[in-house]
Amino acid sequence: MATPFWALLMATLAVAANMAGQIMAYRLLRAEGKLFKSQIAGTLLGGLVLALLLISGPDASLSADVVTADALLYAAFCYVYFHWNNMGETARRIRMLRELAAAPEGLTFEEMVQRYSAQEILERRLERLSAAGQISETDGRLVLTSRTVLLSARLVGLAKQIIFGGRSELDEHDHITL
Amino acid sequence: MPTVGLALALFAGAFLVHLVRWRIALPSATARALLVTFVFGILGGLVFVELMARILPGLATLLPPEPFGTLQALLLSLAFAAGYVMTYPAIEVESPTLVMIQAIARRGDEGLARATLFAQLNDEVLVAPRVRDLLSEGLAVEREGRLHLSTRGRRLVNLFFIWRRLLGASAGG
Fold first, then answer.
1. Measured between CB atoms, does A163 come within 8 Å of chain B?
2. Domain boundaries along the sequence of chain A
3. Which helix (H) or strand (E) holds A164?
């Protein structure tokens, strides 16, 4: 049997282990931030399964190229899966779709805003940033306490520059001076 | 590294097509357009490479020697594309988290007043554009001034319902 066949099978098993591990960890964990922790647990378990299979699997003659491709395939899956999980948790469009699913007679824009307002969006995110130690609040003023998320923001800004030439949807709103 | 090299080349080719197309004119339903661009870009790229390898025998030595190797390269390039497609919404639309963190960072030690943030990032900025996205992506339809789930929207939301039930998670959002 061709070696990359085994490599593909191993990557598939690692992905299955990751998903199973994440679901189990999520169900077992009770602490705050369990989504992120369960994702880490799943990633580590899947990575361990992949490493063990590559070392002791049925084909010991896998080339460095095939092994690297397998590791990258698994890493790409982890990245996609991480986003999938976060979409279900934080994405505004998914939340709106859920609100529409719960309203068989449909919703007007005003009704949608009543169910999911900008205020709620901001409150939830400030809470998450604060819990993650990214910001702190004193006397109604918000201060940055870690630069991790800021780095992500800068990378996204760079990508925006490359793909859209720096155009931003906030440009349409003259009142924004943030 | 023929497998990794081919995967990177296929992804890079499709990414270039995406970049050129987006710079010329931004598609209205971007999520769908992005998926189509990457899937067809990668598949088209693979066909192109295979044809070129028949014309230029030297090129064949740079490609995976076995069909499963080519399949692995194809899957890897699609996985890179999937990673990019998942990242894209954060690049296309303004993430409230990233907007807030940049605004807070700009104010330094003085900090940013919570009231300023809430006054400027209002429903018109954070909610209305996403409602318009649902309509342009065909995930929702508008009838007599009311928004309803479309069939596609229902399929997507059901997928998330199943997934979150499997996790035993709450509503989220």
1. yes
2. 3-90, 93-133, 147-178
3. helix A148-164
